[in-house]
Design brief:
Layout lengths: L50 E2 L12 E2 L5 E7 L2 E2 L4 E9 L7 E9 L5 E4 L11 E4 L6 E6 L12 E4 L2 E4 L10 E4 L3 E11 L11 E5 L2 E10 L24 E4 L9 E5 L3 E2 L3 E9 L5 E3 L5 E6 L2 E6 L8 E3 L4 E8 L12 E2 L5 E6 L7 E9 L13 E5 L2 E5 L9 E8 L6 E3 L10 H4 L11 E7 H5 L10 E5 L2 E9 L2
Parallel strand pairs: 16-27, 18-27, 24-25, 29-32, 31-33
Antiparallel strand pairs: 1-13, 2-3, 3-15, 4-5, 5-6, 6-13, 7-12, 8-9, 8-14, 9-13, 10-11, 14-15, 17-19, 19-24, 20-23, 21-22, 21-26, 26-27, 28-29, 30-32, 30-34, 33-34
């Protein structure tokens, strides 16, 4: 590796990274940790911090640290900064703040391209002069990532000081870094930072919140209360005692959470009147990641002490992690009439009044996170599809759906009055969903003169209720009446 000249005429550098925790604990960024992969033409030591990309520490599970100077816990969240031209930054905590030193972070900076290219340092949040991050909510508190003596690119190492036990930047001083450097291909280095509060005495110190760099919204420093990581406990539905949701996991209800709860699903509204959209945040203030499917959400309704699944009935199957300090934001639309199309599918129509439960994904093996929704709406009236054709044949009503004539495998779904114990019980909010399309076009037609309804449709609609088994009878209970249903293929 040849020595490269800083374009501003000040120093040499290179830059890598993915966000998360270090796979292997990073070496201290001193000369030994940053042993050069080459030397300059004169054999000098200016390049002894250079490393190839393959030698740099990688960041996976974030390190969670506690501050000794304040009741704070913190972690780095996000996927790290990466520019379109291949420069990348990753970061992780090394230690929390103590009486001797501010909270310390380690970062990797790299040119991931295989060729030399210039880098304007201020494009990367941690290499701005000064490097600062602001709280995204609340009072917009500012924090600084101040380079230490163990930062290879620092032209100025700012002074830090303690103010009533909390670490601050003493003053901004001169520019911390050069403006531009030329970087060898697939080369980087390890750097060290101190996380400190604002340099002005009247500005607040580091507190609970989510801090993002002005030039990068994918990497964040998140701090939360060590003693009270949970919500304030002022749920509008506190005191409700619903049964746990179906499944082997225990249900972690938001309305039962306390300030000590580390993982919770927080809604921005708990009592709603359709049509309305409700935002949810699944917050992880624990020390471990939550692995799961971020698309596995469910809406259930509580009827007569039991939970009935309403939507959805299908979902993608990706895997993801919610790391410590991170949160997963989702939004649910609730409608009394038909729901409009939604970009992420989280819109549910045909909802009557009552108590519902929403789960937002990332269930663990032992826990599922849920929030109650009290929906203020009239009861729904379920009717058959508007384009269905109806023919009366004595005490039997025949319904033909539009998909019957063009079905590759036409079929008939027959529903009759029945006696005995049902296999399952349904509520009106379930009928408009795809798995119950046959029942939706049959049950509303039963009156005193109707003993059976035949729905002429396709194979999927006729056989789905019985697991796609032909001539398999299913007995259901709906609004205090019992019915048998069976699907058969035509011809």
């Amino acid at each position: 590796m040849n020595r490269r000249t800083v374009l501003s005429g000040a120093t040499t550098a290179a830059v890598f990274g993915l966000a998360g925790c270090v796979d292997d604990a990073p070496a201290e960024p001193d000369a030994a940790a940053n042993e050069s992969t080459g030397s300059d033409d004169s054999g000098g030591s200016d390049d002894d911090f250079w490393q190839s990309v393959d030698e740099l520490p990688t960041f996976r599970e974030p390190t969670v640290v506690d501050f000794e100077t304040a009741p704070l816990t913190a972690a780095i969240v996000g996927r790290g900064q990466r520019t379109d031209d291949g420069f990348a930054v990753g970061m992780d905590f090394r230690s929390g703040a103590t009486a001797e030193a501010p909270a310390t972070l380690v970062a990797t900076v790299a040119n991931t391209r295989p060729f030399e290219q210039p880098l304007e340092l201020r494009r990367l949040g941690p290499l701005d002069s000064p490097s600062l991050a602001r709280m995204t909510e609340g009072d917009r508190t500012t924090v600084y990532l101040a380079p230490t003596e163990a930062h290879p690119l620092a032209e100025t190492v700012p002074t830090t000081e303690r103010d009533d036990g909390r670490w601050r930047l003493a003053d901004l001083g001169d520019d911390w870094y050069a403006e531009t450097v030329t970087v060898d291909g697939e080369t980087g280095f390890v750097a060290e930072y101190h996380l400190v509060g604002h340099h002005l005495d009247d500005e607040p110190p580091i507190g609970p919140g989510r801090y993002r760099f002005e030039r990068d919204d994918r990497l964040a420093i998140v701090a939360w209360s060590t003693d009270e990581p949970g919500p304030d406990g002022n749920s509008g539905l506190a005191g409700r005692e619903p049964p746990g949701l179906p499944g082997e996991q225990s249900t972690v209800w938001y309305h039962e959470s306390t300030p000590s709860t580390e993982r919770f699903l927080r809604p921005d509204a708990e009592q709603v009147e359709p049509p309305e959209r409700i935002g949810f945040e699944l917050v992880n203030h624990s020390r471990e990641s939550i692995s799961g499917n971020p698309y596995y959400w469910r809406l259930h309704k509580l009827v007569d002490g039991g939970w009935y699944p309403i939507a959805p009935w299908e979902w993608p199957q990706p895997a993801a992690e919610l790391t410590p300090g991170d949160r997963s934001a989702t939004e649910l639309g609730v409608y009394h009439e038909a729901a409009p199309s939604s970009t992420d599918g989280r819109a549910v129509g045909f909802l009557g009044g009552g108590l519902y439960a929403y789960t937002g994904g990332f269930d663990t093996e032992t826990e599922q996170y849920a929030a109650l929704l009290a929906v203020d709406a009239p009861a729904i009236a379920v009717d058959i599809e508007s384009d269905a054709e109806i023919v009366e044949e004595g005490s039997t009503t025949v319904v033909e759906l539009p998909n019957h004539a063009e079905a590759r495998r036409p079929a008939t779904f027959t529903v009759r009055r029945a006696d005995g114990e049902p296999d399952r019980e349904l509520v009106p909010e379930q009928l408009p969903r795809r798995p119950f399309r046959g029942l939706r076009n049959a049950l509303p037609l039963f009156d005193a003169d109707v003993d059976a309804v035949r729905v002429k449709t396709d194979r999927g609609t006729a056989l789905r209720l019985a697991g796609y088994e032909e001539n398999e009878t299913v007995t259901i209970r709906y609004e205090d009446e019992t019915y048998s249903a069976v699907g058969t293929l035509d011809g």
